[in-house]
Amino acid sequence: MSELDVAKIRKDFPIFTRTIRDGKKLVYLDSGATSQKPQVVIDAEVDFYSKNNAAAHRGAHQLAEEATEAMESARQIVADFLGADVDEIVFTKSATESLNLLAYSYTSLITKDDSIVVTEMEHHANLIPWQQLAERTGATLKWFEVDTEGRLDLSSIDQVITEDTKIVALTHQSNVLGTINPLEAIVARAHEVGAVVVLDACQSVPHMPINVAQLNIDYLTFSGHKAVGPTGVGVLWGRSELLEMLPPFLFGGSMIETVTMTSATWAPAPRKFEAGVPNMAQIVGLGAALNYLSKIGMEKIFHHEVELGAYLIKRLSTIEGLRIIGPQHMQARGGTVSFTFGDIHPHDLGQYLDAQGIAVRTGHHCAWPLTRKLGVAATTRASLYFYNDESDVDALVDGIIGAKKYFGRS
Amino acid sequence: MELDALYQEVILDHYKHPQHKGLQPTYDAQVHHVNPSCGDEITLNLSLAGDSISAISWDGVGCSISQASVSIMSDLVIGKSVNEARVILDNFVELMQSKGLKTGDPVILEDAVSLAGVSKFPARIKCALLGWMAYKDAVLAASTK
């Protein structure tokens, strides 16, 4: 079975020592929303505040030097993790901010004759910023549709990505369906017409090896908190020549080169995009998180999730009345599985599971156009990570069967 | 067990056999409310006869709490005066905000006291209030028509 020693890994995460709802063991199947944190990440934040706290890139004292060093070391860790250059890593407060930064910065570069392409399976964070950019500029918003299996329909790729397309923004792995999108054809077509490809990698960077050069994309974003890192830190990676050309989004301290009362010039990227004192402790925590993931091995994490995902789908498929929303087999798919269950509403199922100590997500998962397209008002979602094992899946399956009995009474 | 306090038989009964569900073609006001965090939706039609609520009909999708709550609410306020219904609404909102410390006045709230357990689950309060807030909007719209 898996190469990972999950029992040993779980000892790294203090939250697994607590219990839920009257002494139940915690079965955490909501890592798609946020991951749990290993002690090394918690320690990294505490250490920064306890030993090195000062405003990075400001001040002429030892603490400021140490804070700067800690933050810039983390930038190098992120760059190495993605196979990128260190100056291509911009720290934001979230992936949502990264995507808004891009959409705002592109405002002056987009006209009403241009088009922006997204997909029907985007999280609201990778839909609304582009929708609003189109609204501001008069550009046309177009999208790839999703088929009944939860895959992108690329049959009309040449009609969706056209000569006027400037930006193609899509998710790497759907936060609802678990679908891993094929990038090669999309990237090739986008570059053929001179468009940039923006990859929302929130659900892929934490779960599989990612190399931005191999993917041949132009921008990538992910959030720290889904990758066992702290909340309050996101990453935007962009090709250096693009970051150089792109105007800044937030203005203020430390993103400037010179300032007069009436004008300013900008520091080179990435500083140009990092106005204000950054979330240093969180950035340092993210560095610790990515080091932790690297030590376990992203290849092993991905294999573990694919194996466990296959087990989850196999077990869910045996439950009468349960319908998996999304790909039914593990090809080009990760360990996030959405489903409906007879006439038990996801909120009620989620509440019952919670009473058994099982944490799942219910609702439209911030992807309302997608759930609408698939004809479901809401789903229940179980999302796996490397600290889950078969016992978590078994608990979920027992819980679902228990819910049927519970709500079928009277 | 707290789960049983949440899912009382009365609630599951109303969920399986919702009252006044199915929109009537005539009404004085129609409102549409959504719960953006979970996608629950309700459309509610309301008619007034003078000062009294002569009819409520509704349609919607949602969890057992939201669906049962609107069913119970409809049963309760149809035939009441607008002022009587306001007292019921105020009592219900207070019960929902009570963090499990109140049981509700059965004389005023009747079946709606079965939703008292919801107040212990912060994420579910808005489910229980969805239909009631739709009613509140609808009666205001119908009164000012």
Q: Could you explain how this protein is built, in words?
A:
The complex is a heterodimer of chains A (410) and B (145). Chain A has 410 residues and is α/β, with parallel strands linked by helices. Chain A folds into two domains: 6-30 and 297-408, Aspartate Aminotransferase, domain 1 (Alpha-Beta Complex); 42-295, Aspartate Aminotransferase, domain 2 (3-Layer(aba) Sandwich). Chain A is built from 14 helices and 17 strands. In chain A, the strands form five sheets. A seven-stranded mixed sheet of chain A has the order 4-10-9-8-7-5-6, with helices on both faces. A four-stranded antiparallel sheet of chain A has the order 13-14-17-16, covered by helices on one side. In chain A, a hairpin with a 4-residue loop joins β11 and β12. Chain A is globular. In chain B, a hairpin with a 2-residue loop joins β2 and β3 (52-61). Chain B has a three-stranded antiparallel sheet with strand order 1-2-3, with helices on one face. Chain B has helices at residues 2-6, 9-16, 64-77, 82-96, 106-109, 122-143; strands at 29-35, 40-49, 52-61. Chain B is α+β, with helices and mostly antiparallel strands and 145 residues long. In chain B, 47% of the residues lie in helices and 19% in strands. Chain B is globular. The mean pLDDT of chain B is 95. The A-B interface holds A 21-22, 345-348, 351-352, 355, 362-364, 368, 371, 377-378, 406-407, 409-410 and B 1-3, 6-7, 9, 12-13, 37-41, 61-65, 121, 124, 127.
Question: In brief, what are we looking at here?
Answer:
Chain A is 38% helix and 17% strand. By secondary structure, chain A is of the alpha/beta class.
Largest sheet entry of chain B: 3 strands, antiparallel
Average pLDDT confidence of chain B is 95
Total strands of chain A:
17
Oligomer: heterodimer
Helix content of chain A: 25-40%
Across the major sheet of chain A, the strand order is 4-10-9-8-7-5-6
DSSP helical segment count of chain A: 14
- CATH-defined topology of chain B: Sufe protein. Chain: A
The fraction of residues in strands of chain B falls at: 15-25%
List unreliable stretches of 5+ residues of chain A.
none
Could you tell me which chain pair has the largest interface and how many residues each side has? A-B, 20 and 21 residues
Provide the structure class of chain A.
Answer: alpha/beta
Compute the separation of the termini of chain B in Å: 47 Å
Q: Helicity of chain B, in percent?
A: 40-55%
Main-sheet strand order of chain B equals 1-2-3
- State the CATH architecture of the largest domain in chain A: 3-Layer(aba) Sandwich
Largest sheet of chain A: 7 strands, mixed
How much strand content do the residues of chain A show?
15-25%
For the record, the count of structural domains of chain B works out to 1
